[in-house]
């Protein structure tokens, strides 16, 4: 019997917990790889509660339950999750573990799926519960899976080789680098569990997760340069087997946990930021010596080689033409009043697909009209969709996945008729000034992203305003659009990676913004590549090469607030937009581009 209501599902979970002798359970949005985006088979929280955001969790006790989300989802969680069934709790003011400690009785047994939680979470929760006489229990099989009758199967789509011409390095070369690291550190092996790390190391891609071209699998990399790939047999083609070669042993994904338990006496490195608690438990159970160390693929993956850098330039050029066509279309159609957020997102996807080489979106398009633009992480769906009002600001944050690169761009445009308010123009100009300041900055090699963040905020701060998200995140090469370890954000904030030193070859976003709650929002985002500064300097200095080329809306700019250097940046940038995008356009699209790229 299918459980059609969320009340029935919650009741079913409580009965299943009772059968297992458990008094509670914690449900995160996660998969076995701690992925940002998870497949439909792993959407347990959405099935149980109805919550469709990308970050959140729930805790269920016998007579109480709560949903935990941060400020991004304050409105959404109340629209999607029944307040009669769940309390709404704000993170980081509280957490599932703190809430359980306050609400569960002494002696309670609280279950959790160790293959969905990080080891840090498990250890902290265990300590907190111990003070209250509560026991944290790893479950044998997820209790939600036991009651989710129509749960989708994990994808069995084929994993495919990623050509060396795009990767820029062979998998053998990458594995040799990891083997050298293992030998230098005195480790026998390392567990690679993050899906984009597996994809990068083996030059392998897939279609198992929306927006990110990865294949559900694990790798155990050894100090002798060999590796074991754990993947569902149905996903392995003769082409993949040939591509991997003799040094990579292909094993069934189901053999992964037993393989970890068989590493008795081996010294195995595991990254606690990328590996679930279940991996640590399996290694410990088998008698391996577990060392917590960074995933050795993360830094070399972040530092793009020349082939990846050129691939990004090529992908961005094509993407720029598609987005430019879309912006012309929106400038004509939206003022008529007949375009809504979903229609606009679909049209943008259509322009990208017209090139014939788009593989996927790199994330769900943020198509945000009016007050929705004031929600930095807004996600349009059938329930939230609204028409784009004439005489308003429209914000669109989107990206594409191409074999040669991953794109991410935000443009904020004025939808006529009429003119934007003086406040809108002033705020947008301050955001632009911050964007330019960061883009033009030169800095010593190995400067942290956190040290640069204030540059993007200074003009907003001088106007008494700020924005609540980070300024820049790393971007992969036909991989994750949010890639570590580098980040540009306030030091000491909630975002990891602010202390990571920026190095030549890293790609980041540059995306300051401003958001007036209930009214409008502004964000300007280009991707940039870290390159040698090209200036006379004492020591090595770096700067940024802009990769994204799409016109910015001149109607939202007050030229009088710009310095001569900033006006020069604007004119130089739009001259490059014209050089790169114009050859791909014709007719009315080309005429529009020429007008938008005229000197300020």
What does this 3D model show about the protein?
With 600 residues, the protein is an alpha+beta fold. It folds into three domains: 142 residues, 3-Layer(aba) Sandwich (Creatine Amidinohydrolase, Chain A, domain 1); 142 residues, Creatinase/prolidase N-terminal domain (Creatine Amidinohydrolase, Chain A, domain 1, 3-Layer(aba) Sandwich), CATH 3.40.350; 294 residues, Creatinase/methionine aminopeptidase superfamily (Creatine Amidinohydrolase, Alpha-Beta Complex), CATH 3.90.230. The protein is 35% helix and 20% strand. It has 19 helices and 28 strands. The strands form eight sheets. A six-stranded mixed beta sheet has the order 4-3-2-1-5-6, sandwiched between helices. A hairpin with a 3-residue loop joins strand 25 and strand 26. It is globular, with a radius of gyration of 25 Å. It starts with 5 loop residues before the first helix and ends with a helix. The model has no long low-confidence stretch (mean pLDDT 96).
Short description:
The protein has 600 residues and is of the alpha+beta class. Helices cover 35% and strands 20% of the residues.
**How many structurally independent domains?**
3
Instruction: Tell me what portion of residues adopts beta-strand conformation.
Output: 15-25%
Report the span from N to C terminus.
65 Å
Compute the number of strand runs: 28
In DSSP terms (H or I, runs of 4 or more residues), the helix count works out at 19
Q: Architecture of the largest domain, according to CATH?
A: Alpha-Beta Complex
> Which stretches are low in confidence, meaning pLDDT under 50 for 5 or more residues running?
none
Which structural class do the helices and strands define? alpha+beta
What would you call the shape? Answer: globular
Class of the largest domain, according to the CATH hierarchy?
Alpha Beta
Helical residues, percent: 25-40%
Which value, in Å, is the CA radius of gyration?
Answer: 25 Å
Mean pLDDT: 96
Strands of the biggest beta sheet: in what spatial order?
Answer: 4-3-2-1-5-6
CATH fold field value of the largest domain: Creatine Amidinohydrolase
Reported for the largest beta sheet, the result is: 6 strands, mixed
The CATH superfamily label of the largest domain reads Creatinase/methionine aminopeptidase superfamily
Protein name: Aminopeptidase P family protein
InterPro entries: Creatin/AminoP/Spt16_N (IPR029149), Creatinase/aminopeptidase-like (IPR036005), Creatinase_N (IPR000587), Pept_M24 (IPR000994), Pept_M24B (IPR033740), Peptidase_M24_C (IPR032416), X-Pro_aminopeptidase_P (IPR050422)
Pfam families: Creatinase_N, Creatinase_N_2, Peptidase_M24, Peptidase_M24_C
GO molecular function: aminopeptidase activity
